[in-house]
Amino acid sequence: MAKIAACKLTYFPIKGKGEPIRLAANYSGLPLEDVRVSREEFQAMREAKEIPFNQLPVAEFFDDEGRSVCKVAQTRAILRTVARASGDRMYSSDLGQAAQVDQFLDFEEDLFAAMRSSIFPGRIGMDEYKDDAEKEARRAHVAETVFTTKLELLDRALSASQTGWVAGTGEPSIADFALTASLGWIDSGIVDGVPQGFVVSKFPRVGTYLEKFAALEENKAYYASKET
Ligand SMILES: N[C@@H](CCC(=O)N[C@@H](CS)C(=O)NCC(=O)O)C(=O)O
């Protein structure tokens, strides 16, 4: 069986769906080539049919002799591969524990699907917004309804966890990497219609969770190295 020894991640020059993968690779010590492409480069890759689902991120994994093991798209598939390549440190070889991690990875999709669909509604067959006011109203509505109900469920899971990690794992799992990245995006104030700090002001336990994740030595070292 091929052993994975390195990863080349291709994504845009933003945090987005790339950041949980970058942080997970850094946490596990998997060498990562972090390729950040412009919109034009992305279009060229798409036209050359180099991207499985016409979207980024895409990751190629290599063995210790530099031979390609696989090239995969889809953030969660990439996260699982990063975790498995690292001896399941952020996932689990135990089926029951891995299923707990999986359910929170899928929950992340439920939590953010409506908000993500508001970014490019046309891509999923929805009508474009008439104007910015309509777009912001829609996002505020999603925040007040979907987020408020689903974040209660996240709050409950965090309260039940003995370790503070969402799936009760001893170390942060890839579900924590995915959830914290998306929660951080929503709370940063970058999404028009959702006030900065919306999540942490309503759900302090989620705020504590984000702080716990940010305080990981590996994450602090990652961002410190990015600033130099
Ligand atoms: N289900 C995919 C969604 C990926 C996705 O939405 N990628 C966006 C960037 S965050 C993209 O490639 N957008 C460009 C486009 O669709 O033209 C995943 O989780 O990786």
From TrEMBL:
GO MF annotation, one: glutathione transferase activity
GO biological process: glutathione metabolic process
Sequence ranges assigned to domain GST C-terminal in this UniProt record: 94-228
SUPFAM superfamilies associated with the record: GST C-terminal domain-like, Thioredoxin-like
Signal peptide: none
Domain GST N-terminal positions: 5-90
Name of the protein: Glutathione S-transferase
Annotated organism of origin: Chloropicon roscoffensis
